[in-house]
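Researcher: For the record, we're logging two predictions in this thread. I'll number them. Prediction 1 follows.
Model: Prediction 1, sequence and structure:
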Amino acid sequence: MSNNEQKNGLAMVLAFFTGCMAGAVIGLLYAPTSGKNTREKIREVSIDTKNRAVEFSQQTIDNVGESIHSLTRQSEKETLEEETTEEA
């Protein structure tokens, strides 16, 4: 995956989360409940969304780290094979 595709994917995910949050807040603001209940719901949705974003970010960081480690091992293996081939 190219760097541009990764940036576009991340931008799309962030836009999705932002849209979800905005939709939830707008829906709660127009719901027929008291101000106190609405504020509590907004707080709950905000905390839930933040927790999901943090979890998604951590998973992404872990996946990128694993990919980097895998690519590094693969590169080292290929370099070692090339050196062995050159010596023969």
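Researcher: Logged. Prediction 2.
Model: Prediction 2, sequence and structure:
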Amino acid sequence: MGKYDAIDVNVYQSNIFHTKMLIKEIELQHYLFNTDVYKLTPKQRLEITMYINPDVALTAQKAFYSEKKQIPPIDSASSISGEFVMAYPPGIPILAPGERITEEMINYILYAKDKGCVMTGLKTRL
């Protein structure tokens, strides 16, 4: 019997996932070091910075405790979020309760999902 006769597949897959994300981070740092960010398009800057300036329409408390209805993310532009929506990794909220949902946010949610992020807070499928 060897040192590793049995492995936890979930731990192994998690390690692979985190290693891939680290490699992407290293590639991004290399890209940023060699790129003039002021020459990038807004879409390219969004992909690099992954920051969207929120439009807060209600307090988080009021939005969270208000009556809600489920809307597919693709049809939710200009609605107000009643829940947190997060992408893991990195686990930072894309949307918080009370923020107005924009096309930019929807595009980022679709982008993150396409890149393999696990989405939390979405009640309907993309």
